[in-house]
Structure formats: C-alpha cells, structure tokens
Specification:
By secondary structure, the protein is an alpha+beta fold. About 25% of the residues lie in helices and about 35% in strands. InterPro entries: Metalloprtase-TldD/E_C, Metalloprtase-TldD/E_cen_dom, Metalloprtase-TldD/E_N, PmbA, TldD/PmbA_N, TldD/PmbA_sf.
C-alpha cells in the first residue's frame, strides 16, 4: 500500500493525465485499505480473513458537462485509458449548470489538524486470535449462555488522497481495531441471541475483551422468555446503542441533494423548532481518534466543528458544491467520496448533548412503556418522515425496567419523535454517533 504522500502524488498524476486528455478541470481520489480479522467459535478457530484493496476514481469536466469513472488497475497505461474514457464520456454527457469543482477560494491547505488517527502498533494474527478467544470465553462463561455465534477481532488500515486541477492536494491515513462477540442463551424455541461490538482507531481505546464478552452474554440472557406487549400509544425509551439511528435519519434528511430534489421531510424547516428548546447536536470532524474524523472533505474543503442542531433548531443543510450551487448557498465541507461517481455527503463525529436526568429518573414517571434495545428493518420514509420499525427490548412498569418483550413495532413520524425527545445524562463517547438514553413520548406501539 502507498504511503499518504505517495497516494497524494498518485492522485495529482491522474489529474494531470486527465488535463492532457482534454479535460477543462478534474479531481482524482485515491483509496486503499487492508484488513485482517480472526474469528473463533466454541473455542476453535473459525475463520481467518485478509483483504486488501486499491482504487482510484476520476471526475472530469468539459465545460459544464461531467463524467466520473474508476479503476482498480493503476498501471500507467490503464490510467491513461481511464482519463481518455472519462473525457469522452463527459463530452457525450448532458450539460449541468451546477457541475464543477469546489470554489477555489474555499479550498483548504496544509497544515491540517493533527487527529491521531493512526495506531503505530499492528497486532499479529496470534494477538488477534487471543483477543477473540478472551471475548468468547467470557461470553460463554455467563450463566444461561448455551451456544456461540463466535467472536471476532480485527485490525485495518486505510488511506484517502484527493487532488484537484485547481490547486488542492492532500492525503491522510487511519487505522481501525474492533472486537465483537455474539452468543445464544436458552434452549429450544426459547433461544435468544445478542451481541456486543466495539471499534476504535487505537487498540488501547477498546475495552478489555473480557468486558465485551461478558456484556454480550448478559444481554443475551436478559432476553430470555420474552413476553408480548399490548398495542397503543405510550412512552418509548431508546437505549443508547439504538438511539443514534434516530439522528442518522435526521442527518440523511439534511443532505443538500435531498433538499434540492425536494425529497426530504425537513423541506422548508431550516431554522424551525424541531426539537425541544435547549437540544443541541454537535458535529466535530476534528475529534481526536474519532471514527469519522477527517481533516478535509471529499472536495478539498475544510471541515470544522459546528452545532447542527442548536436550541432545538437545525442550523444548516449538509452541502457539497453541486447542491450548494443549486440552492444558492455555500458548500459546508460535508462532501464525501466513495468509489466512483459524484460526491455525496457525510458528517464527522456526532453527539447529542446530554440532559440533566439519569436514565432511572427519565423513566421514573412512566406507568407503562417500552425500553427498546434492538431495532429491526428499515421502515423509514425519508420524504414524509413516517417511521415504523420492528423492535425488541423490555417493558417499563411503574417507572422501572420489567421483563423482556419481543415482536412488536414502534411507529410515529420523525418530526413528532424529534419534538417529543428527551435525552438522559448517560452520554458515552465511543461511537460515530453518540447519544444518551432517549425518551420519546406518544409513540405508537403495535404488539398483540
């Protein structure tokens, strides 16, 4: 794999080839990754996986016509052919008055923030196996666990480089480490499965494998003998491991492309009160060792920390250059590159600010409700905001967590969900989207 500096040079070289082939403007992105994973099951080695990939994508412009193309063959001859094909495709494409590179005056330049994304220690396969074995052994030792789906430990490294024909060139690398365990509790038709997984840029930031395994086992046994829930409106409390998906739907609807197409349930709601007053959602792409940290975006613009929601109001759309031009706004540094094609949008590390109440205090006044620990399916309409997903979790009775329940649906509209959302105080910082326990009053629960 190339070093970040070599990757940057490779991207610049492809841009130069595109200009020689007749492009008026171009940008090139280089991406490479390598990963190794060891899986064990029932104390035995189950799988060893090693993967490596290397890819370049090229976007060219001839006037206001554009085309994108990609290749994993990075030989000089293949890159020359790639550039020539891209230019030919662009000349045959329809004109797009919003097409073009990011505004030159907004490009970012080195030095960029030091984000500490690379762990210099590379675990050996025996070390990965030991980590997986420790996690599974701890999970299987939990009373009530009867089988295992296995435990996995992995490590990887990736590089991203971007160059443009109007003066940007940059690259960065990042490592990734993860440990997970999945086990089965109970017997026969009453079996239940659950898991725990953790990911970090540096291996030292992962919890001990035993802790991960014990939590997986405890979660699985807690789900044994689930009951059914009656249908009707009631408060729903989302565990922090699933509550972040609600913000994921919000982020998707904030995409400038969705707003420009008028296909978002947030249309015309910029600046309106969507959450309770005082609610804050923070994006920080410069979080040290963050899972979504990055020094610049997929078009070479600077990334920066900001409140995406402030005092309950959305403050911005997430704009790449094309959607910004279409909406008559400035790009926001949220462009993302993934393989070929035009940029999409993404965000840095996100957190929803914690509230003043502990989880116990948050549910203390709930006579009857649901505590959700798992969501199933993708029943979310990004145009209307209608929300309906299968779920499992626990009953809340008399202000306390009661027995497990399964096979029910929680439903509502995302605008109503956001308006009725109350965060607890138990915010943790290890996911890409970090939220505390979340309470939403008035959701519809469909069970028996």
């Amino acid at each position: 794999m190339l070093s970040p500096e070599q990757a940057k040079d490779r991207a610049q070289d492809l841009v130069e080839r595109a200009r020689r082939a007749g492009a008026d403007a171009a940008d090139a992105a280089y991406g490479a990754s390598s990963a190794e994973a060891i899986q064990v099951r029932l104390g035995k080695l189950e799988d060893v996986e090693r993967s490596e990939s290397e890819h370049m994508s090229l976007r060219v412009f001839t006037g206001q016509r554009s085309a994108s193309i990609g290749s994993s063959d990075l030989s000089p001859a293949a890159l020359d052919e790639l550039a020539a094909r891209a230019v030919a495709m662009a000349r045959a494409a329809p004109e797009d008055r919003y097409a073009g590179l990011a505004p030159e005056e907004l490009l970012s330049h080195a030095p960029w923030p030091e984000l500490d994304l690379i762990d210099p220690a590379e675990p050996s396969p025996p070390a990965l196996r030991q980590r997986a074995e420790e996690a599974e052994d701890a999970a299987r030792a939990v009373r009530g666990v009867t089988n295992s789906d296995g435990a996995t430990a992995s490590a990887g490294f990736g590089i991203f480089a971007l160059a443009t024909s109007h003066g940007f060139a940059g690259a960065y690398g990042a490592t990734s480490h993860s440990t997970s365990a999945s086990v089965v509790a109970g017997e026969g038709a009453g079996k239940q499965r659950d898991h725990t997984s953790r990911q970090a840029r540096h291996a030292e930031d992962l919890p001990p494998p035993r802790e991960i395994g014990e939590l997986a086992g405890t979660r699985a046994t807690a789900r044994l003998n689930p009951g059914r829930v009656k249908s009707g409106p009631m408060p729903v409390v989302f565990d922090s491991r699933v509550g972040g998906t609600l913000l994921g739907h919000l982020i998707g609807a904030m995409s400038g492309a969705a707003i420009a197409r008028r296909s978002s349930f947030l249309l015309d709601k910029l600046g309106e009160q969507l959450f309770p007053a005082g609610t804050t959602m923070v994006e920080d792409p410069h979080t040290r060792r963050g899972l979504r940290a990055r020094p610049f975006d997929g078009e070479g613009l600077a990334t920066r920390a900001r409140n995406l929601v402030e005092d309950g109001r959305i403050t911005t759309w997430l704009l790449d250059s094309a959607s910004a031009r279409q909406l008559g706004l400035a790009p926001t540094g949220h462009a993302a590159r993934s393989g070929g094609g035009a940029p999409g949008v993404t965000v840095g590390d996100i957190h929803l600010a914690a509230g003043p109440l502990s989880p116990a205090e948050l549910i203390a006044d709930i006579a009857e409700g649901i505590y959700v620990t798992e969501l199933i399916g993708q029943g979310v309409n990004g145009v209307t905001g209608d929300y309906s997903r299968g779920a499992s979790g626990f009953r809340i009775v008399g202000g306390e967590i009661a027995g497990p329940v399964a096979e029910f649906t929680v439903a509502g509209n995302l605008l109503g969900i956001f308006a009725g959302l109350t965060p607890a105080s138990d915010l943790e910082w290890y996911r890409a989207i970090n939220v505390p326990t979340l309470r939403v009053d008035g959701m519809t629960v469909a069970g028996d």
